[in-house]
Amino acid sequence: MLDVIHLLLPGLSGVYTAFHLYARATSPKQTKVSNPNFHAFQRSYLIPYLLATLADWFQAPYLYKLYHYYGFLELQIAAIYVVGFISTVIASTLASTLVHKAKRKQFILVLTVVNIVSCVTKLSWNYHVLLLGRILAGFSITLLFSFYQEWYVYQHNDFHGFPEEWIELTFHKAAFWNGILAVACGLISHLFADTLGLTPVAPFMLAIPLLILSACIIINNWEENCGNPSVKFRTLCIEGLKDILLNKSIMLLAIVQSLFEGALYLYVFLWTPVLDGSGKPIGMIFSLFMLCIIIGSPLQVIMTTKLRVATATVPIVVCLLGLFSSLCLTFATHPDRLDWNLSLFGILLFELACGIHIPSINKLQSVVFKDNTVGVVNWVRVPVNVIACACLMSLHGAPDKMGSHKLFLICSGLLLVAVFVSVILRIVVGDDTSSNNQQQLQNGAQVLSRRSSSTGNANGTSA
Predict the structure, then answer these.
(1) Which of 236, 248, 291, 408 has its CA 20 to 30 A from that of 209?
(2) Residue 456 in this model has a pLDDT that exceeds 60
């Protein structure tokens, strides 16, 4: 088992390197900036931001295992995840207007403190304390990364007056290092939690000094800024609902996104109990997942440029990959024929699909959702969370040995419907092959953010 993982780590790393270099070679060349003031400003943003993402990724691999280590039943763990999903979607919805009303530097510091408190709660064996920690993490990390991005854009445009096209250079660099850190954190977490025998709580403790250092840098180097307080939450939601109900393309894309990401939420919960066991290197397995996700972003660029696959066709490919993955896992998790290797393959395949999904869905949102992307996405989150929460709470009781098998069967049904709806979407939207390939490469940051946010740990990017 370890031999398979030790082979996959360098193998997938090589695949990512090849795809990334090839995708960059076939994309428009990046603008090179020699302005020292811009580079100094860029560093002042990237260092605390990457420290915060590093702290976030440390927590992701061992979340489920920590609760299991404390002796909680699967149904109790599922309830914690459900609470995390709910707090994430509430925070994501609030973020759409809150980032324009609050003082961003001040709010980032407050959220960092809340995040630290959520890490400290992991030291407790008390179920209610852990539940509170999950709520705090769901709110703090979701809002934290929204405020980071909005702070940077405001300072870049309004305070420093740098050219707007330079923003993509910073986000591209953030995407690259975010991917590297995600992979590295799985390996480092494995080192501390398993190899050194410091228990699953160790990665959460590692996150605390990183968050403190990030806050100290922000206090000493960042200016305060604030957005546009005229943005109204109610207006965004009403207009978003109208767009979904009155526009066929928007409704179809919202359905595809809800079905796929509803399955994603179930995978986030299921991967640890399916792959965990005596001697299983959970941190290393997590690194494999992150490698598959970051492979997906340049692969999507190659599909839409060299292979001439229309942007509206990519969701069909994504849903088919997800469907094949869930069918493999449905077979592999049946109690009468448990197959660990097939389960690993199935989840890796789904992570690859996630890596392709986010850049393509972002591109389609910019074309289909148009001027009210935030309002529509707020509504998309509702069915995503309803699907995940209802499935986890209804099927994952302790007496049900078929729980994982049934949940993957449900995922198969969701993704089968998603395939048919994505085909209809392709017909309605038509052939739109125009795309900004460099922007798609930058979406790697959003891929990881959303995938992390789905864990209820880093809220994500994404979920």
Answers:
(1) 291
(2) no
Stated pTM of the model: 0.89
Residues 178-204: b if buried by 16+ CB within 10 A, e if exposed: bbebbbbbbbbbbbbbbeeeebbbbbb
d(CA 437, CA 24): 9
- Tokens at 127, concatenated: 């179920």
Task: List the Cα angle 290/296/302 in 5-degree steps.
Answer: 155
Give the C-alpha separation, 410 to 390, whole Å: 11
The predicted-structure confidence for 272-292, as pLDDT tens digits, reads as follows 999 987 678 999 999 999 999
Give the per-residue SS3 of the chain: CHHHHHHHHHHHHHHHHHHHHHHHHCCCCCCCCCCHHHHHHHHHHHHHHHHHHHHHHHHCCCHHHHHHHCCCCHHHHHHHHHHHHHHHHHHHHHHHHHCCCCCHHHHHHHHHHHHHHHHHHHHCCCHHHHHHHHHHHHHHHHHHHHHHHHHHHHHHHHHCCCCHHHHHHHHHHHHHHHHHHHHHHHHHHHHHHHHCCCCCCHHHHHHHHHHHHHHHHHHHHCCCCCCCCCCCHHHHHHHHHHHHHHCHHHHHHHHHHHHHHHHHHHHHHHHHHHHCCCCCCHHHHHHHHHHHHHHHHHHHHHHHHCCCCCHHHHHHHHHHHHHHHHHHHHHHCCCCCCCHHHHHHHHHHHHHHHHHHHHHHHHHHHHHCHHHHHHHHHHHHHHHHHHHHHHHHHHCCCCCCCHHHHHHHHHHHHHHHHHHHHHHHHHHHCCCCCCCHHHHHHCHHHHHHHHHHHCCCCCCCCC
Task: Say whether pLDDT at 79 is over 70.
Answer: yes
Domains detected in the chain: 37-454 (1.20.1250.20)
C-beta atoms surrounding 400 within 10 Å: 14
Helices 248-275 and 403-429: angle between axes, nearest 10 degrees:
150
- Cβ atoms of 323 and 412 within 8 Å: the answer is yes
User: How many CA within 13 A on the CB side of residue 452?
Assistant: 34
Q: Which of 44-48, 318-322, 349-353, 374-378 has the lowest mean pLDDT?
A: 374-378
Angle between helices 340-368 and 373-395 (to 10 degrees): 150
